[in-house]
Amino acid sequence: KKMKVNNKKQDIVASFNSALEGLLYTLKRERNFKVHTLFAFIVILLGLFFKLPLTEFVLLLVVVSIVLITELVNTVVEIVVDVFISEYHYEAKKAKDISAGAVLVSAILSVITGYLIFVKHFPAGWRNIFNNIANSPWYLSFTALILVISLSLIMKLLIEKKYSISGGMPSIHSVISFSIWTAISFFTFSEFPVISLLVFILAFWVAQSRVLRGIHKPFEVIIGGIIGVFLTTLFFQLFWR
């Protein structure tokens, strides 16, 4: 009987270790899971910062968990399909697409739920944040823009050992997409912040797609987004008044 009890304990420990190994493997190998984990961490911190009621915080945890679970299932589907089907197969592709669609649906659900929860707790003054930025001195944005470009060139020199802005630095798609997000936010954030949120998601997807396709490195996309934000902000500070 003692042996059976010990075996059960060992089985439980082994199962826990296997589950932990699978989670760490996905976190290490799957870029999308890393992104979703980072956003989940940020959302939970925001929930603690705004001191959400228990029911709303639990609901937030549920939708965040759904996104992570569907991403894990999507990874399993992709691995299984790749193991058993070595050549291109239409049905295999559809299985992967449907699995990815489940992740997309859960992500959209989580964004909508998060917005409905957080919008009630954001301070009223935050709605004027873009108006306040537009009315701030233009030289602040100009100085920040010069610093960002200079730092990106210095990092490129240290990493790639050459002075150049060629080779994908910065990502023009990222510059344009985040420039559009910033411009739309100036016009809509004070009255309809959800529009700014939705456009930000689109801008993020554009930037992420450049990395996933291997066209740009994450650093090039991040610098492109920052440059797009500062350029648009500078334009509004100079001409919008």
Account of the 3D structure:
The chain is 81% helix and 0% strand. It is an all-alpha fold and 241 residues long. Helix 2 runs antiparallel to helix 3 (54-84), helix 3 (54-84) runs antiparallel to helix 4 and helix 8 runs antiparallel to helix 9. The termini are far apart. Residues 161-167 have low confidence and may be disordered.
Structural class: mainly alpha
**Percentage of helical residues?**
over 70%
Mean pLDDT: 76
Strand content: under 5%
Distance between the termini: 82 Å
Instruction: Label the overall shape.
Output: globular
Q: Please tell me how large the radius of gyration is.
A: 22 Å
The profile of the biggest β sheet is: none
- The tally of strands reads 0
Number of helices: 9
**Helix and strand run:** HHHHHHHHH
Note poorly predicted spans. 161-167
What are the defining features of this structure?
single chain; 241 residues; mainly alpha
Secondary structure layout:
Elements: H1 2-29, H2 31-49, H3 54-84, H4 90-118, H5 129-134, H6 138-160, H7 172-188, H8 193-212, H9 218-239
Helix pairs in contact: 1-2, 2-3, 3-4, 6-9, 7-8, 7-9, 8-9
